[in-house]
């Protein structure tokens, strides 16, 4: 079975909120996100943990600039990866504005 990489684009509001929260935390304040983003993040993390435990998700995380994120699926058919992404909380809540599925060959 094949492996797939998903590259997502994050919404402007999501990016700005994260950057502000990180800046505030680095400046001695607290890391605080808007309530809807916080709820989506909690649901997103639970969803990804379930996928990781099932063996479908190899790893996932945002790029350093918070413009986009990367998810790597293993031994999961492309149709299922697309279904998983359509049901992903950040997709459903509008924080993943676009995503691209590409086949990936894990060599090492």
Could you list the spans in which at least 5 consecutive residues all have pLDDT below 50? Answer: none
Query: Could you describe the largest sheet, including whether it forms a barrel?
Result: 4 strands, antiparallel
What's the number of domains? Answer: 1
Question: What fraction, in percent, of the residue positions are helical?
Answer: 40-55%
Mean pLDDT: 96
In whole angstroms, how far apart are the ends? 17 Å
Question: What is the CATH topology classification name?
Answer: Alpha-Beta Plaits
Q: What amount of the residues lies in strands?
A: 25-35%
Indicate the structural class.
alpha+beta
Order of helices and strands: EHHEEHHE
Q: Which CATH architecture?
A: 2-Layer Sandwich
Could you state the CATH homologous superfamily?
A: Dimeric alpha+beta barrel
User: What CATH first level would be assigned?
Assistant: Alpha Beta
Radius of gyration: 15 Å
Q: In one word, what is the shape? A: elongated
Major sheet strand order: 2-3-1-4
Number of helices: 4
Overview of this protein structure:
The protein is 44% helix and 27% strand. It has a 4-stranded antiparallel sheet with strand order 2-3-1-4. It has 4 helices and 4 strands; from the N terminus they run βααββααβ. The protein has a single domain (3-104), classed as Alpha-Beta Plaits, CATH 3.30.70. It has 108 residues and is an alpha+beta fold.
